[in-house]
């Protein structure tokens, strides 16, 4: 009997083992995240067609559908992929002259679930773009409820025992690079063994083609789209392949596509330390009553964080709370600090309390918060169909980024050189250096799909949005991308955080809505301020009006409430190392 068959036969025994192992280290829960979705089983959603969408009510407010698309667009009549789609319908009737059709959204990743995003954040996004539009989310091919779904394992127990997430902290130990490289070789072999039939077709070009099929199934000819983070790669690829099929296209929190398709991931962190500095400056400005991690100067706060890193590196903090247990070590703390930079208004206040407690030797607040927000613990089910539509986030993430990018040399020496190079780019470089190395063992699949360069004269110019201090997609990349698409304009949002959803801005919202309605763009070099720019700390999870919130106009309150609703939904849920 093979080792893999033994694993399948011993599912229950492995589940018991996993139950003991997973709780010993919080990082081990960051495996293939699982998101629950609509009450209607996806196998009961809609009829499958390549020409139209049959919508099924899947909640009180949303409708769902599935669409057949070619698995291989070079053989359109052969095997099919099935794309799961969700809609928060426009409140304007479809037969009204005011109805403006669907806007497709992609929340990032790669491998992020658009169904989960729109299921939770659809109503809030509708408030931002207006009632004339259908808000559409879809799971890209290989992801979650779309099939075939990327999975590198025969059992859930195997998956739990061998996390495939591409991001590890390569500064966590002396052998971290070598271990991460070695694991990548095994993961690559698993990919070649279990997914060869469909895996070559899981890439961004094919997803862009799927988006056009979704638009056409709506009875439309051109795409309206808003993509965040990796969704900017998807949007830029669509605009490059189908420049005459762009009706409205916003890319927000822009990835350097050249760096992405080179599988380097070396330019993402250009502004990460600038974003971290906003935590130090904000904590100092809030004072000892506003920031629990306060020190007399921003430099002293920064030094206290460095001291904490070294403390938990030398002696990880053991934690046992009423709900969870595990270790707070260097990798967990360092990764969490990068994650909180995605959404300062949500996380800065929390992290100041958690850091202050950790400095006293109490890791409970930090670990409890991560555990509460993270994916549910692994459970082994004897019903093989029960988890058919689980969201295996990390497997899809790895497949898309490794398939999209150029082949990575497999030698360990190359991995060591890459780590040393990227580690110099930012204090968080040891985290992002691991992404390229994760692809070093990936199967040698054909690379005939689109790999750049992006650009072209689109039928309508793009609106490109970047923040002044985005930790993982710099404003520099937004400006670089704009040069590839003539007449496109970069709108700068003046805040820290990842994409324009990091902070509420009446100004940004107005430009977004105007663009979707008329195609009008802001003047070049426009910079939008954000609401609550000086009120990051002590906001009680944004519940209680603080400072300038007390003087909000009705319009400002409307935008703030919509932002707040999006922030609390699945895309910004647990702190995690995803773009």
Q: What would you call the quaternary organization?
A: single chain
The number of distinct β-strands equals 12
What is the residue-mean pLDDT, rounded to a whole number? 86
As a percent range, the share of strand residues is: 5-15%
How far the N terminus sits from the C terminus, by CA atoms, comes to 41 Å
Instruction: State the share of residues found in helices, binned by percent.
Output: 25-40%
Tell me the number of structural domains: 1
CATH fold label: Rossmann fold
**Low-confidence segments, ≥5 residues, pLDDT <50?**
1-39, 384-389, 539-549, 570-579
CATH superfamily: Alpha/Beta hydrolase fold, catalytic domain
CATH architecture title: 3-Layer(aba) Sandwich
Radius of gyration: 23 Å
- Strand line-up in the sheet with most strands: 1-2-3-5-4-6-7-10-11-12
Overall 3D form: globular
Q: Report on the biggest sheet.
A: 10 strands, mixed
- Total DSSP helices: 19
Helix/sheet category: alpha/beta
CATH class: Alpha Beta
Domain Peptidase S33 tripeptidyl aminopeptidase-like C-terminal: 428-528
GO molecular function, one term: hydrolase activity
Domain AB hydrolase-1: 102-284
Family: Belongs to the peptidase S33 family.
């Amino acid at each position: 009997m093979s080792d893999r068959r033994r694993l399948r036969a011993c599912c229950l025994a492995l589940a018991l083992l996993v139950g003991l192992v997973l709780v010993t280290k919080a990082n081990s829960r960051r495996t293939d995240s699982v998101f629950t979705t609509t009450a209607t089983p996806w196998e009961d959603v809609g009829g499958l067609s390549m020409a139209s969408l049959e919508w099924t009510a899947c909640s009180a407010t949303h409708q769902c559908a599935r669409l057949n698309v070619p698995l291989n667009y070079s053989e359109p009549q052969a095997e099919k992929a099935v794309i799961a789609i969700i809609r928060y319908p426009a409140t304007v009737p479809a037969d009204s002259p005011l109805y403006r059709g669907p806007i497709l959204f992609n929340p990032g990743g790669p491998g992020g679930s658009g169904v989960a995003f729109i299921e939770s954040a659809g109503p809030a996004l509708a408030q931002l773009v207006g009632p004339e539009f259908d808000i559409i989310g879809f799971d890209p091919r290989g992801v979650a409820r779309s099939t075939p779904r990327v999975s590198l394992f025969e059992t859930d127990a195997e998956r739990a025992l061998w996390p495939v997430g591409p991001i590890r902290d390569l500064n966590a130990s002396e052998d971290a690079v070598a271990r991460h490289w070695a694991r990548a070789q095994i993961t690559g072999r698993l990919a070649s063994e279990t997914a060869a039939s469909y895996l070559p077709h899981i890439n961004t070009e094919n997803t862009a083609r799927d988006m056009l099929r979704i638009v056409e199934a709506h009875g439309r000819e051109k795409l309206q789209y808003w993509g965040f983070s990796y969704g900017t790669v998807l949007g830029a690829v669509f605009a490059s392949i189908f420049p005459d099929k762009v009706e409205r296209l916003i890319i927000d929190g822009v990835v350097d596509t050249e760096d992405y398709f080179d599988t380097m991931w070396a330019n993402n962190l250009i502004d990460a330390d600038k974003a971290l500095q906003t935590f130090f400056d904000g904590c100092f400005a809030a004072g000892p009553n506003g920031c629990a991690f306060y020190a007399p100067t921003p430099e002293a706060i920064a030094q206290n964080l460095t001291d904490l890193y070294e403390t938990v590196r030398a002696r990880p903090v053991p934690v046992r709370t009423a709900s969870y247990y595990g270790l707070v070590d260097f990798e967990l703390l360092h990764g969490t600090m990068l994650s909180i930079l995605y959404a300062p208004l949500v996380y800065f206040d929390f992290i100041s309390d958690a850091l202050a407690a950790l400095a006293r030797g109490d890791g409970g607040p930090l670990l409890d918060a991560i555990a509460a927000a993270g994916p549910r613990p692994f459970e082994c089910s004897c019903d093989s169909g029960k988890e058919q539509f689980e969201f295996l986030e990390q497997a899809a993430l790895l497949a898309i980024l490794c398939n999209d990018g150029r082949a990575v040399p497999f030698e360990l020496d190359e991995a060591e050189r890459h780590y040393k190079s990227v580690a110099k780019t930012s204090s968080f470089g040891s985290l992002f250096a691991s992404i390229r190395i994760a692809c070093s063992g990936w199967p040698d699949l054909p690379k005939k799909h689109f790999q750049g360069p992006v650009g072209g004269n689109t039928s309508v110019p793009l609106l490109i949005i970047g923040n002044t201090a985005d930790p993982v997609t710099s404003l520099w990349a937004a400006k670089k991308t704009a040069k590839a698409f003539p007449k496109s304009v970069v709108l700068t949002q003046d805040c820290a955080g990842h994409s324009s959803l990091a902070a509420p801005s009446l100004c940004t919202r107005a430009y977004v809505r105007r663009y979707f309605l008329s195609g009008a763009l802001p003047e070049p070099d426009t910079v939008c301020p954000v609401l609550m720019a000086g009120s990051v700390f002590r906001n009680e999870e944004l519940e209680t009006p603080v400072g300038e919130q007390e003087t909000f106009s009705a319009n400002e309150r409307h935008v703030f409430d919509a932002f707040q609703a999006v922030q609390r939904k699945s895309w910004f849920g647990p702190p995690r190392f995803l773009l």
